[in-house]
Amino acid sequence: MPFVLVQLSDLHVGAHWGGHDPVAALAAAVESVQALRPRPDAVLVSGDLAENAADAEYEQVRELLAPLRVPLYVLPGNHDDRAALRRHFGLEGAGGEPVQYAVDLGPLRLVVVDTTCPGVDPGAVDDERLSWLDAELAAVPDVPTIIAMHHPPLVTGIPALDATGLVAEDRRALAEVLARHRQVRRLVGGHVHRPVTGDLAGRAVLTAPSTYMQARLDFCEEGLRLVPEPAGFAVHALLDGELTSHVHPVGRARSAPG
Predict the structure, then answer these.
(1) Is the pLDDT of residue 256 over 60?
(2) For 63-75, how does the pLDDT look when each residue is reduced to its tens digit (9 = 90+)?
(3) CA–CA gap between residue 243 and residue 145 (Å, rounded)
(4) pLDDT for 146-192, tens place per residue?
(5) Taking Cα atoms as reference points, which of 11, 3, 29, 40 lies closest to residue 190?
(6) Residue 252: is its pLDDT beyond 60?
(7) How remote is the C-alpha of 214 from its chain's centroid?
């Protein structure tokens, strides 16, 4: 059996965009995760858990995710508050400092990097965060590793999304760190509200779609348009040392007739 890490992203509980309900959307995503076989070993939520970073929103997120009954790992997005995440999800560290940690999941290691800049939508990875990442990767060089962040280190080609991502200088600095650590198999993120793949320093980068609303694919329009296209989540499966990643739609799979 593979080791399975499910990645949910951009839940935005508390939002009211276009009449779409993020609570119902997250409940449907949780139901779809529960239908997976084998059941996941752990769940990662790659940012924007809440819309307004309110305590009641985070409490509702915890309640909605509770039926999964597996270890849960969260990281902040640009809509989140670091201190509130720490209070509600038992994360290490103090107050508003970056939320960064590493977890040994048996055959797989998860390293969480905080790309948020409080008060603004674009992300960043400064020297201090990169130094922390470099040291964490050097400490365990032989275990297949996923690096998780909210702002993915790639260019989507969608102007509004790229304006709120990581700048080229930060992507280059992150690539220099990755080049020293061959055990990193995948970089995963959210933020862009659609599945996108790319690469950085020869490693695959994957963004998970939102459980709520998706970004319209438009390479020409300057503004961002979010649409109620089908929601989904990522499934990362490690089997015999090989890591594969799937983007799975929300909705129970049905057996074929016959």
Answers:
(1) no
(2) 999 999 999 999 9
(3) 9
(4) 999 999 999 999 999 999 999 999 999 999 999 999 999 999 999 99
(5) 11
(6) no
(7) 14
Q: Where are the alpha helices (DSSP H) in 35-154?
A: 55-65, 82-89, 127-139
Number of H helices, E strands in the chain: 6, 13
Q: Which whole-number Å values give the CA distances from 25 to 92, 191, 207, 212, in the listed order?
A: 29, 17, 18, 6
Distance (Å, rounded) from C-alpha 31 to C-alpha 107?
26
Give strand ranges (E) for 23-154: 42-46, 72-75, 101-104, 109-112, 145-148
Separation between Cα atoms, residue 20 and residue 198, nearest integer Å:
30
Query: Rounded to an integer, what distance in angstroms lies between the CA atom of residue 11 and that of residue 233?
Result: 11
Question: Alpha-carbon distance 236 to 23, whole Å?
Answer: 24
What gap in Å lies between CA 152 and CA 162, rounded to an integer? 10
| Nearest-angstrom CA–CA distance, 9 and 236 | 14
Note the residue count of the chain.
258
CB 244 within 8 A of CB 233: no
Cα 245 to Cα 112, 131, 240: the distances in Å are: 18, 27, 14
Given a contact cutoff of 8 angstroms between Cβ atoms, the answer to whether 199 and 86 are in contact is: no
Question: How far apart, in whole angstroms, are the C-alpha atoms of residue 28 and residue 235?
Answer: 16
Q: What are phi and psi of 64, to 5 degrees?
A: -70, -35
Please give the C-alpha separations between residue 119 and each of 49, 61, 93, 94, 170, in angstroms, as whole numbers.
Answer: 16, 22, 20, 18, 19
Q: Are 197 and 209 in contact (CB under 8 A)?
A: no
